[in-house]
Amino acid sequence: FVLVGRVVKPFSYLHPYTSFPRVVEVLNSDGKVVRTVAEQPLQDKVPIEGVPVGPRSVRWIPTQPHTLIWVEAQDDGDPRKKAEFRDAVFTSAVEGRTSELMKLEHRFAGMDFFPTGNRMLVRDYDRERKWGRTLLAPTTNLLASTEPKVLFERSVQDRYGDPGTPLGRTLPSGHRVLRTAGDPAGNVIWLSGPGASPKGDRPFLDKLDVATGKTTRVFQSAENLYEDVAAVLDAKGSRFLIRRESPTEPPNYFFRDANHEIAITKNTDPAPELRKATKELVTTKRADGTAITFTLHLPPGHTKDGPKIPAVFYAYPVEFASADTAGQVTGSPLRFTTITGYSHLFFLTQGYAVLEVSMPVVGPPATANDTFVDQLVSNAKAAVDKAAEYGIDTGRVGVMGHSYGAFMTANLLAHSDLFRAGIARSGAYNRTLTPFGFQNERRTFWEAPAVYAAMSPFNHATKINEPLLLIHGAADNNPGTFTVQSERMYAAVRANGGTVRLVLLPHESHGYEARESVEHVLHEQFAWFDKYVKNAKPK
Q1: Is residue 124 among the annotated active site residues?
Q2: How do the residues of the chain divide into helix, strand and coil, expressed in percent and rounded to 5?
Q3: pTM above 0.85?
């Protein structure tokens, strides 16, 4: 049998094809439809953060003959409705009867199958608390007396408490299952995680016995370099493929067992001059005490005691339910810096420092954006003030971002005087053009018009008195950032007497790919900040 999904008419000009009507069917080897599993209409009325009604996430159970498994909403797909259970999991042989396997208290978030024992891991997600669980559950009603067991649960934003992601392998049939560690009962699985800590990431590999809940650490990166396990090469976990890098050594692969280590690749530094640049993780606090972390890149030859240098502030806002998770450190200072495309890190070659800043927006998920602008400004001020201790000229800082980071850039120029100029790429600036929610905003424009208005830098174009460079793909098909957003923002700033430039890149979408486009973007970025930041007259 073959499981097939078909997009069917009527097609929509208002929604992406992923929301088009869809039919999910099972065909036999002659191409004949033997079962229609789901018939989904156009998903134009699915609530914000909701799911369509009817069967979804339909797939085969890889360890049972021609047996399907899927999920159906129990709350009409509407997360705002009160419901004892959000989802239910169903199973059925192709030519058999459908039976309910289990109910989920929260929204279904994925599943992985064991290669033996008719078991699976099921994940669900509580959007109110941003809370995730992983449960051990049966895949057949013959084991229905086995209650699902919670293996672990945590805030999905708690990087320090991340238990890791289960590793998988491919069966001869082509289906994916969990990789087990060779124990006779098949209870031990592998978990790989980033190992986040206040000092940065230290990737790890663990064994987890799902029967006892006992975890055994098999590998963790050393403190003075960055290593992770690229592949486990045997069931016992005695042989690995290791990926290793450091600030001065590019990523390379090594075979390692109990007694040997053999280099597999010998990649060399593609840009040795960049190794003279330095970076470190810096932590500070904004006015309300929330921790702000940023990676500070300093250009070759710069010292804290030397002449003050201009800086580029690059960020992307992220919503957090609590200040504790918002302040956790992301990334590692021990990774090799690779610069590609039109990266903001190219400014290191032009004598700028670069701040890659965490921009937390903290608050209850339903109302966090009520203080969005105030939190942006507080985050930025804390980071810029701290950067001054490293020889940054706080009177010559430019701000830039892409997509939601471009939205942030325009807001920071409108609502603060921290920056001399801005570069906003592929952004959205008028939130009435995204009235059915955006990013993680749950409310529609009609439910929270004041929030949409306050967050839209288009409405505050008269306050943007620093030079703003707008760059956008002329064929941006991202529903939240149509090209018209930059065209209208340009018109608004210019008509109100601001300094603004609009660059449209032919044929490019939300990101830019053509060599000509990449080089054009770099040229525009350097020219803009050189004129309005590096060589700006003192305020």
Answers
A1: no
A2: 20, 35, 45
A3: yes
